[in-house]
Design goal:
binds 3-isopropylmalic acid, two-stranded antiparallel ribbon, 10-stranded mixed β-sheet, alpha/beta, 2 domains, Isopropylmalate Dehydrogenase, binds magnesium ion
């Protein structure tokens, strides 16, 4: 592996994106040396940074760079308060993030939620409910369902002379058998490498999509007799996450449900700033083209102040090394270094508690330094 060049497109984006990306690259450079890798990182603008630099949330040159790279290390995009005159189709969320997901066929989104034992205080649940530890992998379908289904539009359905205008908004939830099958296989395969339990989330009591989802997942499960499958309605799933999160190992969700439940699950890990994610396309061998990003968003309120937690971005680098390059040892080295930095008491504001005697509050840069030093 050491002779190959790892070609990485680094798109930091908006808000805290650039400062957490800087720490992630710092850590990646240390790993590069330690594991004798050759890493080529090319940075390019995306999001509002893309609009500012080239008039588009996903500039052509940035897209071209992504196509020429092995994978994309992404920061975050979207600043809700910026320029309301820019139409929604051109705003970063749709024009950059959703576009990249679709363009690269990134149908499998993996969001690991793990609460380190030192951060039990940052979890909103009682110690009792945390049990022996929360360790959940949300597998979210990312290129189908309501996010992309057609028709998708807002139209006027009546009005005219003297009458108030009545509008109608339509989003379409649509899934095909192959779309459900391929994400189910990803979920079963990852469950196999974990505690071998898969909870498939749906709304089969109301939605046609839920019935098909449940049928297809059940059929796929016959190929994985060693994985225990259970089905759960999404409303109950949301409740169970709060009541007894330790019952979950892998949660398989369609796009919209996965969006919602992954944020809910993330809260259990103490902070959104702790959560990395991988969005993967079709597998070739043990590799997949991947897109790696923190789950937390741009956090404009703390941007540029050295306050953001860089851990989610740094752990995204670990996921990248594992899923796009098969470099399991290098990935583990990053994960262990993050654990060591936390164990040593380093805390950004989001995971700090004054009640901890051996912890100290650090900034984005200092947290990156501590992790880099622990590699
Ligand atoms: C996420 C985000 C995105 C989504 C937004 C920013 C479009 O919430 O990655 O979970 O809804 O998928
Ligand atoms: Mg979301």
């Amino acid at each position: 592996m050491s002779s190959t060049v790892l070609k990485i497109a680094a798109l930091a984006g908006d808000g805290i994106g650039p400062e957490v990306m800087r720490e992630a690259i710092k850590v990646l450079r240390v790993v590069e040396k330690k594991f004798a890798l050759t890493v080529k990182i090319t940075e390019a603008p995306v999001g509002w940074a893309g609009i500012d630099a080239a008039g588009k949330a996903l500039p052509d040159a940035t897209l071209q760079l992504c196509k020429e790279s092995d994978c994309i290390l992404f920061g975050s995009v979207g600043l809700p308060d910026r320029d309301p005159t820019i139409p929604k189709e051109e705003r970063p969320e749709r024009a950059a993030l959703l576009r990249l997901r679709k363009e690269f066929g990134l149908f499998a989104n993996l969001r690991p939620v793990k609460l380190p034992k030192e951060l039990a205080h940052a979890c909103p649940l009682s110690k009792e409910r945390q049990g022996d530890g929360i360790d959940i992998l949300v597998v979210r379908e990312l290129t189908g369902g309501m996010y992309f289904g057609q028709p998708k539009k807002t139209e006027e359905i009546s009005g005219g002379s003297g009458k108030a205008k009545i509008m109608r908004a339509i989003d379409t939830m649509v899934y095909t058998t192959p779309e459900i099958e391929r994400i189910a296989h990803v979920a079963f395969r990852t469950a196999r490498l974990r505690r071998k339990k898969l909870t498939s989330i749906d709304k089969a009591n109301v939605l046609e999509n839920g019935v098909l989802w449940r049928d297809v997942v059940t059929t796929v499960s016959r190929e994985y007799p060693d994985v225990a499958l259970e089905h759960m309605f999404v409303d109950n799933g949301a409740m169970q996450l709060m009541l007894r999160p330790t019952q979950f190992d892998v949660m398989l969700c369609e796009n919209m449900f996965g969006d919602i439940l992954s944020d809910e699950a993330a809260a259990l890990a103490g902070s959104l700033g702790m959560l990395p994610s991988a969005s993967l396309g079709a597998q070739s061998g043990d590799r997949a083209f991947g897109f790696y990003e923190p789950a937390g968003g741009t956090a404009p309120d703390i941007a540029g102040k050295n306050l953001a937690n860089p851990i989610a971005q740094i752990l995204s680098v670990a996921l990248m090394l594992r899923h796009s390059f098969g470099l399991n040892d290098a990935a583990a080295a990053i994960e262990n270094a993050v654990s060591a930095a936390i164990a040593a008491g380093n805390r950004t504001g989001d995971i700090f508690s004054a009640s901890e005697t051996n912890a100290r509050k650090v900034g984005t840069r200092e947290m990156g330094d501590a992790i880099a030093a622990a590699i």
